[in-house]
Amino acid sequence: MVIKPTFQSTKLGKIGGSEMIMSHGDRLLKWYPEKQVQCPLCEECPDSHEHLFFECPYSTLIWQDMKKRIKKDEWSDKWKEILFDISEMPCNNNIMSIMRRLVLAACVYYIWTERNKRIFSNEKKDYKEVLKDIISNIRFKMASLTVKDSNMVNEVYKQWKSP
Ligand SMILES: [Zn+2]
């Protein structure tokens, strides 16, 4: 089953274009509304897509750190609002635009992976370890970017080099 955001997301490029697949918890709830599946990350709240990105206390810690790094502290922790905010911003080759998309994609990928590892392999990582994985993934992607030398680019690269 596939769900799509209800608003225009044409500016989102790859992230917006990707359709979100309903989580295991969301699907189970649809068929068995009386069964609440627990979020494997916080082990406190019902598991759902909305909860995972990024209302879950575990995911929120990662998202808060990432929002600071892209200077978007004011962004919401709610998936639909985040998608709306990002869709309202320019989607181009500007370094800030690239960083916003890299950060969101990496957060989604690594949090989803951590969730699945906990369910299927019983492996657990602290949020700080997942954060480290996200940062090194983004650094790796930045290293492969071809960028023009500018004050903004230098500032962004300097910031991401620091721990
Ligand atoms: Zn949770």
Write a structural description.
The protein is mostly helical and 163 residues long. The protein has one domain (2-161). Helix content is 59%, strand content 2%. It contains 8 helices and 2 strands, in the order βαβααααααα. It has helices at residues 13-17, 24-31, 49-55, 57-69, 79-87, 95-120, 127-143, 151-161, and strands spanning 2-3, 20-21. A two-stranded antiparallel ribbon has the order 1-2. Helix 4 (57-69) runs parallel beside helix 7 (127-143) and helix 6 crosses helix 7. It is elongated, with a radius of gyration of 17 Å. Mean pLDDT is 84; it is low at 1-19. The structure holds zinc ion. The site of zinc ion has 7 residues, from loops.
What does this entry show, briefly?
This protein is an all-alpha fold and 163 residues long. The protein has helices at 13-17, 24-31, 49-55, 57-69, 79-87, 95-120, 127-143, 151-161, and strands at 2-3, 20-21.
List keywords for this structure.
163 residues, mainly alpha, two-stranded antiparallel sheet, 2 strands, 2% strand, elongated, disordered N terminus, binds zinc ion
Please give the structural blueprint.
Blueprint: E1 2-3, H1 13-17, E2 20-21, H2 24-31, H3 49-55, H4 57-69, H5 79-87, H6 95-120, H7 127-143, H8 151-161
Antiparallel strand pairs: 1-2
The structure holds zinc ion.
